[in-house]
Amino acid sequence: MDEWKQVMAMLIFNLIFAVMTALVKKALAEGLNTLVLITLRQLVATVFLAPIAYFKERNTRPKLTPEIFVYHFFSAMLGAALSQYAFFYGLQCTTATFAITFANLAPVLTFLISIAVRVESLDMKSKAGTAKILGTLVSLGGALLLSLYKGGAVTHQTTTAAALSSGHHATAAAAAASHEGNGKKTWMLGTTRLTKKYPALYSSTAFMFFISTLQAGALTVTMERNASVWIVTRKLEIITILYSGIMASGAGYLVMTWCVEKKGPVFTAAFTPVVQIMVALIDFFFLHEQLYLGSILGSVLTIFGLYLLLWGKRKDALVSCANKQVDEEANRKELQAVKS
To answer: Quick check: helix, strand or coil at residue 153?
Structure first.
């Protein structure tokens, strides 16, 4: 029964993110400024999470040193401000399904960077190592197919927005979403180190939200001289900002953290393609976007490659855990022999 709680929680998390993606696309299409959206979203998320962090970690929160501040600053810039801007820009140029597929490449890109900086080992002779390499290649191949091959329309929606998924706009969207993945993967690696130095997870995230609010706000003031961009009056814009800040960033983060604590990061990553399916359904039924053969084939390849990679990582984790238990048992017997 406890296992189903985590499954339901991850499905709810993915649904929250899928709905946010549809709301953001609609709001941006109606004129909401991207930088204003990011700034206000991070501000709402800060207000939501800060009280929770204060009361939950008031007795365990470490001291904030200059080194920790620098970690938070770059984590906020890469993981919140820049990655959101890249994703939202890609969302404006193409369909939600297209943009979310490239965003889902984050685990693959994280794996490649981890190998490059020697954070993660790779045994090419093992089944797990082969699966990770093959999964990476298949996912990247799916992304390449998605961006270069459009194919025929498999649906017959009446829309002009679908035309944006080809040519220059598709290339721009792919580049933007790839930058989003790059920012996210760099942020993930940085967050791993930050968690070791500053283990107050809720406080760390609330502080990161606050810093990213200031960063996005400063960038908005610099780039948008017209103060009218800050005036948000449309009902859809207000709902999008509140929903993305409270549900996607705030509540979504709490759900994700709980699932990672209970089942680990591989379990949560395995649900990544679910949001792609949900977004595709919202894309078709509510945003009335066309679905093309290239999008379907590319998405299927990306999802299949991701699951291959995750299977390899889980296999590695099981082997590592088994080896650790063997070593602990050997040390225990050796200690008993010395005592006797």
So the answer is: strand
The encoded tokens of residue 197 equal 């130095």
The neighbour count for residue 284, using CB atoms within 10 Å, is: 16
Question: Which are the contacts of 88, defined by CB distance < 8 A and separation ≥ 6?
Answer: 24, 28, 34, 37, 38
CA distance 247 to 126: 41
pLDDT at residue number 40: 95
Q: Are 309 and 132 in contact (CB under 8 A)?
A: yes
Q: How far apart are CA 135 and CA 131, in angstroms?
A: 6
Cβ distance 27 to 236 under 8 Å?
yes
- Region label for 288, one of left (φ > 0), alpha (ψ between -120 and 50) or beta (otherwise): left
Place of tokens 């930050």: 194
One DSSP character per residue, 287-322 reads: S----BHHHHHHHHHHHHHHHHHHHHHHHHHHHHHH
Cα–Cα distances in angstroms (integers) from residue 302 to residues 141, 178, 186, 215, 222, in the given order: 7, 14, 20, 33, 38
State the pLDDT at residue 214.
95
Taking only the tens place, the pLDDT of each residue in 13-65 is 888 888 888 899 889 988 899 999 999 999 999 999 999 999 998 888 888 88
119, two tokens: 């954070």
Closest CA to 17 of 279, 319, 328: 279
Query: Cβ(135)–Cβ(311) under 8 Å?
Result: yes
| Residue 275 one-letter amino acid | V
Q: Is the Cβ–Cβ distance between 35 and 81 less than 8 Å?
A: no
Helices (H) and strands (E) in the chain, counts: 14, 0
Q: In the chain, where do the E strands start and end?
A: none
Tell me how far CA of residue 101 lies from CA of 91, 97, 294, 312, 319, in angstroms: 11, 6, 12, 21, 31
Position 249 pLDDT exceeds 60? yes
The tokens for 104 are: 């889902």
